[in-house]
Amino acid sequence: MGPTRTRELLAATLAAAVFGYLVVRGVYRYFPAVTLWTGLSLLAVAAGEAAWAWSVRSRIREGRIGVGGGRLHPLAVARTVAIAKASAWVGAVMLGWWLGVLAYLLPRRSELRVAAADAPGVVVAAVSAFALVVAALWLQHCCKSPGDPFGGKDAAGELLTD
Q: In the chain, N or C terminus with fewer CB closer than 10 Å?
């Protein structure tokens, strides 16, 4: 399993933004109000992952990997990478969704009172989704072994980073 590629996340964000815009364009009148609290759950997950990344990074730097008290089990690191990858994808899709909603709302703020009221909540949700992507990518980065045997390449010799 290699690191999450940012270009793939950008493609998912763009696809979700187009999809979100088209959906919102057709059914916006049925949407519930978007408040400032709408996207804060993503921000809470991002903060949790950032704290988790800090913990993993400090344990790896101190060499506390292995089995035993206070050590980080290698399988826990592998599971952490899987969670970080999933969170990055969820964050990218949600960022795209909220950007699509924002693209619909911004030009209509002056003519639709509800669009003007929803716009701040959508901005907070988009920023929170972006924070989740950043925190997930950082968590994934913090799980790298200090002595990478492949030198940043996978087993086939292809470069893992973008």
A: N
CA distance 150 to 65: 19
Burial (CB count <10 Å: 0-12, 13-18, 19+), residue 65: middle
Q: CA torsion 3→57→136→161, rounded to 10°? A: -30
Please answer whether residues 152 and 161 qualify as being in contact, where contact means their C-beta atoms are separated by less than 8 angstroms. Answer: yes
How far, in Å, are 5, 17, 79, 105, 107 from residue 8 at the CA level?
5, 14, 21, 26, 29
Mean pLDDT in residue range 81-94: 96
**How is residue 3 written in tokens?**
């690191």
Neighbours of 108 (CB within 10 A): 15
Q: Which two tokens stand for residue 120?
A: 């701040």
Q: Residue range 35-60: average pLDDT?
A: 91
Predicted confidence (pLDDT) per residue in 130-154, tens digit: 999 999 999 999 888 766 555 455 5
